[in-house]
Design a protein that fits this description.
The chain has about 220 residues and is an all-alpha fold. The protein folds into two domains: about 100 residues, Cytochrome Bc1 Complex, Chain D, domain 2, CATH 1.10.760.10; about 80 residues, Cytochrome c-like domain (Cytochrome Bc1 Complex, Chain D, domain 2, Orthogonal Bundle), CATH 1.10.760. The chain is built from eleven helices and no strands. The longest helix has 16 residues. The protein is globular.
């Protein structure tokens, strides 16, 4: 069975932090799938043979994924996100959202609908196990400004280091082109992502905010 993950696997970006509130909303994943994921993560972590077997199998079964997201999970196309080191819970949740129609993308929906739950879990584990890295160096002035915006507006949900706790995506090291594209997509009234919690959040960001956020996030480790 071929597992093809092409562009637009997830809309990574940040959540606005409300200074007077410390509550971080948690998006509840599919509990049955989450249990399968946790069981497989524990097995892979405890058994080297199982881990090697999974890696060998997925190298072949994700060949089409690699065309967009890179052999090492680092995309060379600004319209496609990096998957390396991504939060496995978030990856699994997005695969499920494409499958059940909560996320709209013709290519992704047509492909993911054919995937069994076990395949979704395997894909999430495989890409999450790849080491993430910064995608750019960036300009110092933009990085400084972007860091300020990030820690004021984004860190409460995505973590101070952009590591993606709970069901939120890891942002650190994401391509600046993708960050910018995703934020602009969230802002559109007729966007495929208009039902996302990011719709209202992204609409408060200025063009300058988006530019410096993309610059800073891409340099995070």
């Amino acid at each position: 069975m071929f597992i093809a993950l092409v562009c637009y696997l997830f809309g990574v970006i940040a959540c606005v932090a409300t200074p007077t509130k410390q509550y971080i909303p948690k998006i509840t994943p599919d509990l049955a799938l989450q249990k399968k994921l946790e069981e497989q993560l524990a097995l892979v972590a405890s058994d080297e043979a199982v881990r090697q077997q999974l890696n060998q199998a997925m190298k072949f079964r994700t060949l089409l994924c690699q065309r967009c997201h890179g052999v090492d999970g680092h995309s060379r196309n600004g319209r496609c996100p990096n998957l390396a080191g991504q939060n496995p819970t978030y990856l699994l949740q997005q695969l499920q959202h494409f499958s059940d129609g909560q996320r709209q993308d013709f290519q992704m929906q047509s492909m993911v609908r054919k995937m069994a739950d076990a395949d979704k879990v395997a894909v999430a584990i495989y890409f999450s196990s790849m080491p993430p890295r910064p995608s750019t160096v960036g300009k110092s002035d933009q990085i400084t400004k972007g860091k300020s915006v990030f820690h004021t507006r984004c860190a409460q949900c995505h973590g101070a280091q952009g590591q993606g706790p709970y069901t939120y995506p890891l942002l650190a090291g994401q391509l600046p082109e993708y960050i910018s594209m995703a934020l602009h997509e969230f802002r559109k009234l007729n966007s495929r992502r208009r039902t996302s919690i990011m719709r209202e959040i992204a609409s408060t960001l200025s063009e300058a905010d988006i530019k410096v956020l993309a610059a800073y996030i891409s340099t995070m480790e």
